[in-house]
Amino acid sequence: MVRKRSDIALTAFIVIAGIILVDQITKIIIERNFIEFQTIAIIDNIFHLTYVPNYGAAFGILKNKTYFFIIISIIIIAGLLTFLLFIPRQRKILRIALILQIAGAVGNLIDRIRLGYVIDFLDFRIWPVFNIADTAIVIGAAFLIYDVLFLNAG
């Protein structure tokens, strides 16, 4: 069965909205129940919930450049959305990659606009603290790399 472009767009919208919703709900729970840098061990020394305000980009680089990140995020989201509209139907992995990256970018953009920083809270102790939006972006990047290297290498 061939899916109509409108069906694909609706599915993309639902997935993006769902990821953003989960991201924002988890961040609000952390914001309302933790003080900054408070940590609670879920699995001691392996996985903690830790409220870390991130004023920079990944791993805290370029701190205190909120307006820069807001503008760049909007440009990137607009570009990804535009690209998503023109992806051929058969490029499902690429479509998934962009959907995940858009959702993650919007989730973190909401934080930057609302708070001036991004709430990070998933703490595996051996890696910088991150959030659901970051996870969507990284998984989307992995799908993008897979698509480029293995599905469309020729």
Task: Please sum up the structure shown.
With 154 residues, the chain is α+β, with helices and mostly antiparallel strands. It has one domain (5-126, 133-151). Helices cover 60% and strands 12% of the residues.
Key structural traits:
154 residues, 60% helix, single chain, 4 helices, three-stranded antiparallel β-sheet, alpha+beta
Could you please describe the fold and organization of this structure?
It is globular and about 45 Å long. It has a 3-stranded antiparallel sheet with strand order 1-2-3. It has 4 helices and 3 strands. With 154 residues, it is an alpha+beta fold. The protein has one domain. The relative contact order is 0.17. It has helices at residues 5-33, 66-85, 92-115, 132-151, and strands at residues 39-43, 47-54, 118-123.
**Distance, first to last CA:** 27 Å
Q: How many strands?
A: 3
DSSP strand (E) fraction? 5-15%
- From N to C, what is the helix and strand string? HEEHHEH
Topology:
Elements: H1 5-33, E1 39-43, E2 47-54, H2 66-85, H3 92-115, E3 118-123, H4 132-151
Antiparallel strand pairs: 1-2, 2-3
